[in-house]
Amino acid sequence: MTGRRFIYQSVLESEERMYIEIKDYLTASDIPEPILRKALLAISEAFTNALIHGNRKDPGKNITIVIAINNNRLTADITDEGKGEESAAFLRQPPGLWQEGGRGIDIMEKLADKATIIKCRETGGLRVSLEFEIERQKSQAKS
Amino acid sequence: MQMTCTEEQNVTFISLSGRLDLSSGNKLKEEIKGLINSERSSIHLNMKEVEFVNSSGLGALVSIMKEIRVHRGRLTLSDLAEYVQEIFDITQLSHIFEIYKTEEEARSSYQLAEVR
């Protein structure tokens, strides 16, 4: 198993650095492109939620992304240092078509094979855990 | 995100490249809302060179669309990569956006609308 931890300050400028670093890491880890795209998008959604709703763009708070990869699974944990409660995610209303926000969690849930949101004891914030099956999707692509 | 604009009659054709996310979505909203007025309210976005769109980018497009509708204009999109189209499909936003396969098809739709 390989893995890496990325830490970002909660400022808008971190968005671009996160995208480039995570994409480079997944590319260097030979993640098949369809899974790389799904993972990058789902991680980006969790990152944006952490930045805006979790840490409320407080530069004194960080967003931590931990990625682990083995032969058949990619996992990403995205953790903020805010005061969110996981119940807010469960109780959310589906966004209307003309709504500008509120699609991030739905996108994560649709793209990842498994997506969970829990309260993180260490930071007090929320942790989004995303899982992507690599081998299964590889074999699906072949069939 | 980079954008290049050309104007044809009453439609502004904009080619986008790069990522459409939270930061670039905010900039795109500001730029396009600055272009819209009562005489020039239709915008076409060619997304051929857009490599990434997330929900914040989609939100920016919804916001632009709402502003354009206030001015009775049209927002059309074209040349979406397959993985970008997929995001429109899974969020069901493909139901509210006018999406054309090519810019040429979008241009024809404006010409047809003018004839009518």
In short:
Chain A has helices at residues 14-28, 33-54, 86-90, 104-111, 134-142, and strands at residues 2-9, 62-70, 73-79, 114-119, 126-133. Chain A is of the alpha+beta class.
Tell me about this structure.
The complex is a heterodimer of chains A (143) and B (116). Chain A is of the alpha+beta class and 143 residues long. Chain A has a single domain, classed as Heat Shock Protein 90 (2-Layer Sandwich). Chain A is built from five helices and five strands; from the N terminus they run βααββααββα. Chain A has helices at 14-28, 33-54, 86-90, 104-111, 134-142; strands at 2-9, 62-70, 73-79, 114-119, 126-133. Chain A starts with a strand and ends with a helix. The relative contact order of chain A is 0.20. The mean pLDDT of chain A is 91. Chain B is of the alpha/beta class and 116 residues long. Chain B has one domain: STAS domain (Transcription Regulator spoIIAA, 2-Layer Sandwich), CATH 3.30.750. Chain B has helices at 22-35, 55-70, 82-90, 103-115, and strands at residues 2-8, 11-20, 42-53, 75-78, 98-100. In chain B, helix 1 runs parallel beside helix 2 (55-70). The mean pLDDT of chain B is 94. The A-B interface holds A 12-13, 15-16, 19, 34, 37, 40-41, 44-45, 48, 51-52, 97-101, 103-104, 106-107, 110-111 and B 19, 21-23, 52, 54-56, 58-60, 62-63, 66, 83, 87, 90-93, 95-96.
Considering the chains and any ligands shown, give keywords for the structure.
heterodimer; A: alpha+beta; Heat Shock Protein 90; 5 helices; 41% helix; 27% strand; globular; B: 116 residues; alpha/beta; Transcription Regulator spoIIAA; five-stranded mixed β-sheet; 4 helices
* Average pLDDT figure of chain A: 91
Find the CATH superfamily of chain A.
Histidine kinase-like ATPase, C-terminal domain
How many independent structural domains of chain B? 1
Tally of DSSP β-strands of chain B: 5
What is the global morphology of chain B?
globular
Q: What is the helix/strand order of chain A?
A: EHHEEHHEEH
Q: Sheet with the most strands of chain B?
A: 5 strands, mixed
